[in-house]
Amino acid sequence: MGQRLSDYRLFLREFRQTFHSTGAILPSGRRLARRLASKVGSGDVGQKVLEVGSGTGAVTAEIIARLGPDDRLDLVELNERFAKVLGDRLRQDPSWLRVADRVRVLQMPVEELDEACRYDVVVSGLPLNNFSCQVVQKILSQFHRLATQGASLSFFEYVAIRKAKALCSKPQERRRLAGIESLLQRELDSWEVDRDCVLANVPPAWVHHLRLPGEVAGAEKHEPRDQTPSRSTSPGS
Known about the structure:
The protein is α/β, with parallel strands linked by helices and 237 residues long. The chain has one domain: Rossmann fold. The chain is built from nine helices and seven strands, in the order H-H-H-E-H-E-H-H-E-E-H-E-H-H-E-E. Helix 3 (30-36) crosses helix 4 and helix 8 runs antiparallel to helix 9 (171-191). The chain starts with a helix and ends in a 26-residue tail after the last strand. Residues 225-237 have low confidence and may be disordered.
């Protein structure tokens, strides 16, 4: 309880000071965190896992609970204060200490992560709706470059958040939100295999699960697969 209260206070402060990159007033709820981490530990061999936008570690704790003895985890967090909290937890939290030798905390934008690194599972907590279309495109392209063949990508969006924002936004902001909608929908149409609606979260959220093709060395782009998503219901975000 003490850890969660401390996380809440830090999130609220960062939300006020750095809303653009924080994007949430509270850490992810437990049900949302569990769905985001659900692809970790699903393989028969060791996985290399990447979590982007780890915050204070709400989702990280669920990922760590699922790590097998041969799994490795990289945490990419741009916010200096959040990165410090993650490092402290790796040194002090008993449940994190058992895997500390297989976890790295990298304070940087994910776009700067070495493309030689390849991951079997990618979990993103980035507030994509807060970024420019150009930045969102760079992040999505980087996810593809970092993915092994058939890697899973899980990310979340608050239910109907873009539509709600657009209703009270100026034309320029509506165009930005529409551009993000188009970019994300293209990814979902091409690669989504499942999605979960987590109503017991503040606010309610969609968790999207994609299976990425992995980028072939030297390739300029990734081509959409022929398979259609297992669920066709629009997320309404």
